[in-house]
């Protein structure tokens, strides 16, 4: 590890001089490429060449150069050297095997990509790089092949159309962001400090400001699940927070308590980059558009508009797992699988040329035992890193253990059978992302194996759209689910009795039919969405049941019902009506996508290397206190060689992670 004085970021070390050196090195290394221009586009250095055959013949040269410079270098054919889209489509169709089943061909002019969506993409993928290289050499377009989604999503298609429609704006945005990342440093990295703007001492509205003196990065921009008004926003009015000083926003995953106020930042002037994994990008746009509709129904005019969501999409830079990315002059960021929902990430920040490293877990799911079936869909969170000086870790279930997953599935199946026998309906509030897909897989597997009768499973809200995204990224799912999609062409999320509620006729059928049924609907905490309408009608019938399968935050309708309230006042027929709750209410906690208490401790035990500082957030005060006490008193059992410094700040409190004491800080300031 570098010494304190050596590690200190030197002002002016980056910027114009470094860019000149990088450009010179690239020109000298790629002389035969016929370089047209070199652009700093977001975190990447884009090399535009006139000779596309160079990319085909010198792939390893580019990779070696990127490793040498420790930069993300992408080589693209210059737009003027690419063949027309019409010619490229004709060339691809004439040269693909006849049974590939091309569904669509799309172009991304900014990235220089042609995307082929096919029913049998393996016919192209099986030919290795041969066909890709053929297309690139002949047309100048880089070929990407995708499988036709098992479920079609109009909202997902609209994301692609938006990116195509705003290609020039995206190009300008990337170059503007690149200039900011590779700017001259003013003072260098003077400290590492985190400020909780939300999710500290509470669950929801996650927002953490990381301040190095040189740069400011916001980790997540969430909304409290208890409501939609200003009290549900992070503390963006804190004197330490200004949108015009932000270098970047990093989104860990697409749940609203982590992304729900991102459009608000753009409404009030943020024009920097947003970083997220590709699935998070897709799901995020779906849930944010839905959020605007929910806000309109709940309170009239929402605090932001669809155009603010589109601004975020235009400036969003998708980053795959395990890809080191510059997000500020002195900060490199890496996404690591978190196992919580599709695309969810832990965020690793490498600060100041080896000065300090932070791991932000966000919401994550860890397995206590290898191959444990804690989730049907995703592999567990990673736990091995090169360096971690500070850990910011969730504590949602820090105070209690939840039931094993196998018991939870058995309890749900038994409940389905019980409700079916008495002729009732089972209402299951689910988040559109994560629990909805988990429950669908469990129910349809139980249906196929005969553990439950052939009962209609109605799926309402945004669950369908998000499930379509899940089928679009099978490579990120666990092997059994991935194989069913890729090898068998099956959709694990639906069965013969699945009914997608796409209009009010289907909703009326689900609600008013006298036959037993299962209804999955958003929102998971019952603070809006179709679930509330179902509840109003079904609540007074003792044959029916309501099953909670995820966390219910304080202040939500779900928590009130879970806590025992049996008379609820809700808006109905233009007025307020008192609803008597006679339906059975059950909580099944084993389906959680969060790490249980045992899994949190198991993660700390296996985490390598061990952090010096642990900052706990995303938990109710009792959960955070219980987890902090366990770590403080049992650190040696968790594999720590010395007691870690445990921090449990409240919102608006700052924690200085580096330097740890004032004398060191003063010495660095005068070094």
UniProtKB/TrEMBL annotation:
<feature type="binding site">
    <location>
        <position position="363"/>
    </location>
    <ligand>
        <name>Zn(2+) 2</name>
    </ligand>
</feature>
<dbReference type="GO" id="GO:0003723">
    <property type="term" value="F:RNA binding"/>
</dbReference>
<keyword id="KW-0255">Endonuclease</keyword>
<keyword id="KW-0862">Zinc</keyword>
<keyword id="KW-0806">Transcription termination</keyword>
<comment type="subunit">
    <text>Homodimer. Interacts with RNA polymerase (RNAP), interacts with the Spt4-Spt5 complex.</text>
</comment>
<feature type="binding site">
    <location>
        <position position="253"/>
    </location>
    <ligand>
        <name>Zn(2+) 1</name>
    </ligand>
</feature>
<dbReference type="Pfam" id="PF16661">
    <property type="entry name" value="Lactamase_B_6"/>
</dbReference>
<feature type="binding site">
    <location>
        <position position="363"/>
    </location>
    <ligand>
        <name>Zn(2+) 1</name>
    </ligand>
</feature>
<dbReference type="InterPro" id="IPR033769">
    <property type="entry name" value="TffA_KH"/>
</dbReference>
<dbReference type="Pfam" id="PF17214">
    <property type="entry name" value="KH_TffA"/>
</dbReference>
<keyword id="KW-0805">Transcription regulation</keyword>
<keyword id="KW-0378">Hydrolase</keyword>
<dbReference type="GO" id="GO:0004532">
    <property type="term" value="F:RNA exonuclease activity"/>
</dbReference>
<keyword id="KW-0238">DNA-binding</keyword>
<feature type="binding site">
    <location>
        <position position="255"/>
    </location>
    <ligand>
        <name>Zn(2+) 1</name>
    </ligand>
</feature>
<dbReference type="GO" id="GO:0004521">
    <property type="term" value="F:RNA endonuclease activity"/>
</dbReference>
<dbReference type="Pfam" id="PF07521">
    <property type="entry name" value="RMMBL"/>
</dbReference>
<protein>
    <recommendedName>
        <fullName>Transcription termination factor FttA</fullName>
        <ecNumber>3.1.-.-</ecNumber>
    </recommendedName>
</protein>
<feature type="binding site">
    <location>
        <position position="340"/>
    </location>
    <ligand>
        <name>Zn(2+) 1</name>
    </ligand>
</feature>
<keyword id="KW-0269">Exonuclease</keyword>
<comment type="function">
    <text>Terminates transcription on the whole genome. Termination is linked to FttA-mediated RNA cleavage and does not require NTP hydrolysis. Cleaves endonucleolytically at the RNA exit channel of RNA polymerase (RNAP); the 5'-3' exonuclease activity of this protein degrades the nascent RNA released from RNAP.</text>
</comment>
<comment type="similarity">
    <text>Belongs to the metallo-beta-lactamase superfamily. RNA-metabolizing metallo-beta-lactamase-like family. FttA subfamily.</text>
</comment>
<dbReference type="InterPro" id="IPR015946">
    <property type="entry name" value="KH_dom-like_a/b"/>
</dbReference>
<feature type="domain" description="Beta-Casp">
    <location>
        <begin position="436"/>
        <end position="561"/>
    </location>
</feature>
<dbReference type="GO" id="GO:0003677">
    <property type="term" value="F:DNA binding"/>
</dbReference>
<dbReference type="Pfam" id="PF10996">
    <property type="entry name" value="Beta-Casp"/>
</dbReference>
<feature type="region of interest" description="KHb">
    <location>
        <begin position="83"/>
        <end position="150"/>
    </location>
</feature>
<keyword id="KW-0479">Metal-binding</keyword>
<keyword id="KW-0804">Transcription</keyword>
<dbReference type="InterPro" id="IPR019975">
    <property type="entry name" value="aCPSF1"/>
</dbReference>
<keyword id="KW-0694">RNA-binding</keyword>
<dbReference type="InterPro" id="IPR022712">
    <property type="entry name" value="Beta_Casp"/>
</dbReference>
<feature type="binding site">
    <location>
        <position position="257"/>
    </location>
    <ligand>
        <name>Zn(2+) 2</name>
    </ligand>
</feature>
<keyword id="KW-0540">Nuclease</keyword>
<dbReference type="GO" id="GO:0008270">
    <property type="term" value="F:zinc ion binding"/>
</dbReference>
<dbReference type="InterPro" id="IPR011108">
    <property type="entry name" value="RMMBL"/>
</dbReference>
<feature type="binding site">
    <location>
        <position position="258"/>
    </location>
    <ligand>
        <name>Zn(2+) 2</name>
    </ligand>
</feature>
<feature type="binding site">
    <location>
        <position position="618"/>
    </location>
    <ligand>
        <name>Zn(2+) 2</name>
    </ligand>
</feature>
<feature type="domain" description="Metallo-beta-lactamase">
    <location>
        <begin position="204"/>
        <end position="400"/>
    </location>
</feature>
<dbReference type="GO" id="GO:0006353">
    <property type="term" value="P:DNA-templated transcription termination"/>
</dbReference>
<dbReference type="InterPro" id="IPR036866">
    <property type="entry name" value="RibonucZ/Hydroxyglut_hydro"/>
</dbReference>
């Amino acid at each position: 590890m570098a010494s304190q004085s050596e590690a200190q970021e030197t002002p002016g070390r980056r910027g114009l001089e470094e860019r000149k050196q990088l450009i010179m090195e690239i020109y000298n290394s790629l002389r035969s490429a016929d370089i047209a221009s070199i652009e700093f586009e977001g975190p990447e250095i884009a090399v535009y060449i006139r000779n596309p055959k160079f990319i085909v013949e010198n792939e390893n040269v580019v990779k070696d150069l990127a490793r040498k410079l420790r930069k993300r270098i992408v080589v693209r054919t210059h737009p003027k050297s690419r063949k027309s889209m019409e010619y490229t489509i004709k060339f691809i169709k004439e040269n693909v095997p006849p049974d590939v089943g091309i569904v669509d061909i799309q172009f991304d002019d900014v990235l220089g990509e042609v995307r082929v969506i096919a029913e049998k993409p393996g016919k192209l993928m099986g030919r290795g790089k041969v066909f890709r290289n053929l297309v690139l050499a002949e047309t100048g377009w880089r070929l990407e092949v995708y499988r036709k989604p098992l479920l079609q999503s109009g909202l997902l298609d609209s994301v692609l159309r938006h990116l195509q429609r705003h290609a020039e704006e995206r190009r300008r945005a990337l170059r503007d962001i690149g200039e900011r990342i590779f700017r001259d440093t003013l003072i260098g990295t003077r400290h590492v400090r985190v400020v909780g703007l939300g999710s500290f001492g509470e669950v929801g509205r996650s927002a953490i400001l990381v301040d190095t003196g040189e740069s400011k990065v916001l980790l997540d921009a969430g909304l409290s699940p208890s409501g939609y008004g200003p009290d549900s926003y992070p503390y963006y009015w804190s004197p330490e927070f200004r949108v015009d000083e932000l270098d970047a926003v990093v989104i860990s995953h697409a749940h609203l308590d982590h992304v729900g106020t991102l459009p608000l930042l753009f409404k009030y002037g943020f024009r920097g980059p947003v970083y997220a994994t590709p699935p998070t990008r897709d799901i995020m746009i779906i849930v944010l558009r839905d959020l605007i509709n929910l806000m309109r129904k709940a309170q009239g005019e929402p605090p932001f508009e669809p155009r603010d969501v589109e601004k975020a999409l235009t400036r969003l830079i998708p980053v795959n797992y395990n890809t080191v990315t510059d997000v500020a002059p002195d900060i490199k960021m890496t996404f690591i699988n978190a196992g919580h929902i599709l695309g969810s990430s832990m965020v690793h920040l490498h600060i100041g040329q080896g000065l300090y490293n932070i791991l932000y877990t966000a919401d994550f799911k860890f397995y206590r035992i290898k191959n444990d079936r804690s989730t049907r869909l995703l592999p567990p969170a990673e736990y091995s890193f090169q360096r971690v000086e500070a850990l910011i870790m969730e504590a949602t279930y820090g105070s209690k253990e939840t039931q094993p997953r196998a018991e939870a599935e058995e309890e749900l199946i038994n409940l389905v059978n019980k409700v079916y026998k008495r002729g009732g309906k089972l209402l299951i509030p689910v988040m559109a992302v994560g629990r909805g897909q988990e429950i669908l897989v469990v129910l349809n597997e139980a249906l196929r194996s005969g553990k439950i009768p052939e009962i209609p499973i109605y799926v309402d809200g945004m669950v369908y759209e998000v499930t379509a995204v899940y089928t679009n990224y099978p490579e990120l799912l666990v092997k059994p689910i991935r194989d069913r999609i890729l090898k068998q062409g099956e959709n694990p999320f639906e069965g013969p009795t699945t009914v997608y509620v796409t209009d009010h006729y289907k909703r009326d059928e689900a609600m008013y039919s006298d036959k037993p049924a299962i209804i999955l609907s958003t929102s998971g905490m019952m603070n809006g969405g179709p679930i509330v309408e179902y509840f109003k009608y079904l609540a007074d019938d003792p044959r029916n049941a309501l099953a909670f399968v995820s966390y219910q935050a304080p202040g939500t309708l779900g928590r009130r019902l879970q806590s025992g309230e049996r008379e609820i006042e809700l808006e109905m027929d233009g007025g307020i009506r008192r609803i008597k709750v006679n339906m059975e209410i059950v909580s099944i906690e084993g389906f959680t996508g969060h790490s249980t208490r045992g899994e949190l401790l198991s993660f700390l035990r296996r985490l390598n290397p061990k952090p010096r500082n642990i900052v706990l957030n995303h938990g109710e005060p009792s959960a955070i206190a219980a987890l902090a006490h366990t770590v403080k008193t049992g650190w040696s059992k968790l594999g720590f060689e010395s007691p870690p410094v445990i921090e449990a700040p409240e919102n608006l409190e700052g924690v200085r992670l580096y330097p740890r004491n004032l004398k060191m800080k003063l010495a660095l300031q005068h070094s």
